[in-house]
What does this fold into?
Amino acid sequence: MDVSSTNNIVNTVVATMVQEQSVAINVAMLKKSMDMQASASAALLQMLDPPLATSGSLGTQLNTFA
It folds into this structure.
């Protein structure tokens, strides 16, 4: 093999490794972003669901809210 062929192979391997690392970083960031969105969504949904009355005569028979 000549030197230019070897250099081309090395350059191709290095470029592939860099691209794979970039994809792995992008996937990790996407997962972290999705986890943050899920957490924020859960917090918002928790705020929408008011606690129900469990005792007394007011609010224990009919559950309505606007």
Notes: The two ends are 78 Å apart (CA to CA). The mean pLDDT is 86. Residues 3-48 form the longest helix (46 residues). The CA atoms of residues 27 and 43 lie 24 Å apart.
